[in-house]
Write a structure and sequence with these properties.
The chain is an alpha+beta fold. The protein has a domain of 54 residues: N-terminal domain of TfIIb (Single Sheet). It contains two helices and three strands. The protein has a three-stranded antiparallel sheet, with no helix packed on it. A hairpin with a 2-residue loop joins β1 and β2. It is flat.
């Protein structure tokens, strides 16, 4: 396996990115652990066939999760 050079912190960041890229995620549509990465920021569910745009190495970002939560709170208030 190829690895990052020049320091432990770079190697840790590289390993984290590769592990999160290859991990299976839960589908927002069918709630199954079948979402895999198809390309840069493109994710596809093997079960329902849904295609999603996300982060480069993970299905969601922290900013996206906060935005989703805020939209949900605002929709409840209205």
């Amino acid at each position: 396996m190829r690895s990052s050079k020049y320091g432990a912190s770079n190697r840790k960041l590289h390993d984290f990115a590769i592990k999160s890229k290859n991990k299976r995620y839960e589908c927002p549509k069918c709630a199954k652990l079948k979402v895999i990465r198809k390309g840069n920021s493109i994710w596809k569910c093997k079960s329902c066939g849904g295609v999603f745009a996300g982060a480069a190495y993970s299905l969601t970002t922290k900013t996206g999760e906060v935005a989703k939560r805020l939209v949900g709170e605002y929709s409840k208030a209205a």
